[in-house]
Specification:
This protein has 149 residues and is an alpha+beta fold. It has one domain: Peptide deformylase (Peptide Deformylase), CATH 3.90.45.10. The chain is 26% helix and 34% strand.
């Protein structure tokens, strides 16, 4: 798989929701593995499906970040349901925009709901780097990149 770069049209598109029945059947398990390999090979900590050309509301996060925060590493049809008022600014990069870094203001804490890789509903409270990654990757699923910020 190749990580797509802007201005590929799929990176500016709101992605299609995934049918939970497809998750239960294991339809996307190979995609999840390939996305993890690509993310690691490119030194990323998150990757959205549109970054590999898939019109699916899926993102993954680094397995170590997931383990450190005791959360899953795969998120399907995610929605951030709450943003904290307190925020901070931090420099972010993006695998779809090589060599480009920009300071982005984001909420320090968020609540997210999604489906896990088995199609089960999950709800997570995140703070710090995990909250930032959730916001960055959810932006991708809505067709927004750090260049749009």
């Amino acid at each position: 798989m190749e990580i797509l770069k802007i201005p590929k049209k799929i990176l500016a598109k709101k992605l299609e929701p995934v049918d939970p029945a497809d998750l239960k059947s294991g339809k996307y398990n190979e995609l999840f593995e390939e996305m993890h390999k690509d993310m690691i090979a490119n030194n990323g900590i998150g990757l959205a499906a549109n970054q590999v050309g898939e019109d699916l509301a899926i993102f993954i996060i680094d397995k170590n970040l997931a383990i450190d925060n005791n959360v899953p590493d795969i998120y399907i049809n995610p929605e951030i349901t709450e943003y904290s008022k307190d925020s901070d600014e931090m420099e972010e990069g993006c695998l779809s925009i090589p060599e480009y870094y920009v300071s982005i203001k984001r909420s320090r804490k968020v609540k997210i709901k999604a489906l896990d890789k088995n199609g089960d509903k999950i709800k997570i409270k995140a703070k710090g780097l995990l909250a930032r990654v959730f916001q960055h990757e959810t932006d991708h699923l809505n067709g927004v990149t750090i260049k749009d910020k």
